[in-house]
Every structure is written in structure tokens, then in C-alpha cells.
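So, who can interpret the following?
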Amino acid sequence: MANLTPNKKHKALPRRDNMVDLNSMVDDYLDEAQSPVPSPTTENFKLDVKEKDDEYIVDAEFPGYNKEDIQINFNYNILAISALKEDEEYDEDERYIHRERSFSSVERQIYFPNVAEGDITASFENGILQVHIPKAKELEMEYFILIE
């Protein structure tokens, strides 16, 4: 009977076969996209990943961030880039009607196979972080085993 109520969002019952309910996914996406306040899970930075013969290159945009705000970690073939930005202290005597520029935290993780972990380098210039991730030397994939 609840399905017949107009203008009321319908939430489907959980499916028993572990299939993804596409209608619920679309509804959740639209609800999040139309929200006037961005949720912490949707705020992110833009990045490009390029592959060359001997390395991967990641370019990430961090406008308004300083080099000290950004952290890079590589562990178990996952490159994690995160940034934490806190706005300057503000005067308690000021009367703000609305304030949004106080804190932001973003993070992205990217999987890279076949990496020479010790040789990863990074630079930051004009709001662009560039990470060079050298590929490891290819190992021989076929082995012949001598039978004794």
C-alpha cells in the first residue's frame, strides 16, 4: 500500500539475492547531488593517471593548498594521497552570518601493480602535485623446473 502514496520516496526492501538495486543507487546519487551542503564523502580532488613504458605519473589538483597540507603514502601497491586544510584563525569579535571556509579533508587511493617502491618521487608546484611511480623490472614469468 505504501507504494501507492504519491510524492513519497519509495525505498525498496533489501533483495535476497545480493544483487544491486539500480533504482536505489540512482535515488541515493540524486539525493546526494541535489543536497545544498556537500557531504564529506563527495568532496574530492581531481587527478590524472598516465602510464609510460617505465613509470606511472599522477597529476593531482590542489588549488589553495600548501605543500605541507598534503601527505602521500605507498603501501601494498596502493598510493594514498590525502590533504588536510584548516583555514586561518578568525577573530572572535567578528560576527559571521555564514562561514564555510574552515576545514576540508580529502583523500584518494589508487592501485598500481609492479612498482619499484623505493624510487617514488613527488613535486608540488602551482597547486599541482605530480607523483612519479617507477615500474619494477619485469621478472621472468616462465620457469623451467628440472626434474631430478
Observations:
- The CA atoms of residues 118 and 134 lie 9 Å apart.
- Residues 1-8, 32-42 have pLDDT under 50 and may be disordered.
- The domain at 45-89+102-134 is CATH 2.60.40.790 (Immunoglobulin-like).
